């Protein structure tokens, strides 16, 4: 097994969201020698995009992604996504991750929800292109199809990318797609052009909460090294974002311990 390159580790701030502000996360990354960070917008709002961008640059970090735009069934989706594009531009983020949203209120029509997502993305894509902000559709596990994301496989996301053209790709979050029997094929299809982000963690058995019980790499059952080999063979040479939502474990720990273990486990994934 080839070890992962430690220089390609990025901290998605969800991993320490319960313990640290964005400023603390930036300082923590610098202290631990992690050169890349992926903020969430709620933490970004506390600091402000301009101040955050300045602090990130002063600590010699780069931004591998901003989480998140999307939720295209929300009433204020257009204004919110325009703000998200502006924020990603200010941070010089590699991409803006889109969690697309689920069924509109009162609807059971999943097919129509997916059509709406494509229609909405087509409206904001010209603005994202003009700002130099690639959009990354993140397929979520089918368990979240109704409330958080009606795009649930890489195949669905890539079909949408093909229809929309340049300036859009996918965020491959292992927690959400590891189970997919077409995963290797669709990673190859995404290739270097469409793979804009790669998020890692692990799937615990038993899982105590389907959203907030992600595992640290190596603690679960995902074949992380094998999937990384598929990603790299397809041409992806970007960063590996550790993104762990963990109410009962990692959010309860000293965040410096969390980052230290992230660095140790990343090498083996």
Descriptive overview:
The protein has 269 residues and is an alpha/beta fold. The chain has one domain: Alpha-Beta Barrel (TIM Barrel). 42% of the residues lie in helices and 13% in strands. A nine-stranded parallel β-sheet has the order 3-2-1-9-8-7-6-5-4.
Number of domains: 1
What portion of the residues fall into strands of 2 or more residues?
Answer: 5-15%
Shape: globular
Outline the low-pLDDT stretches.
none
Walk across the major sheet and give the strand order. 3-2-1-9-8-7-6-5-4
CATH superfamily: Divalent-metal-dependent TIM barrel enzymes
Question: Layout of helices and strands, plus pairs?
Answer:
Blueprint: E1 9-12, H1 22-32, E2 36-38, H2 41-47, H3 49-58, E3 62-63, E4 66-70, H4 77-91, E5 96-99, H5 110-131, E6 135-137, H6 154-164, E7 168-173, H7 174-177, H8 183-194, E8 195-200, H9 224-233, E9 240-242, H10 255-266
Helix pairs in contact: 4-5, 6-8, 8-9
Brief summary of the model shown:
With 269 residues, this protein is α/β, with parallel strands linked by helices. It has ten helices and nine strands.
Characteristics:
alpha/beta; 269 residues; single chain; 9-stranded parallel beta sheet; TIM Barrel; 42% helix; 10 helices
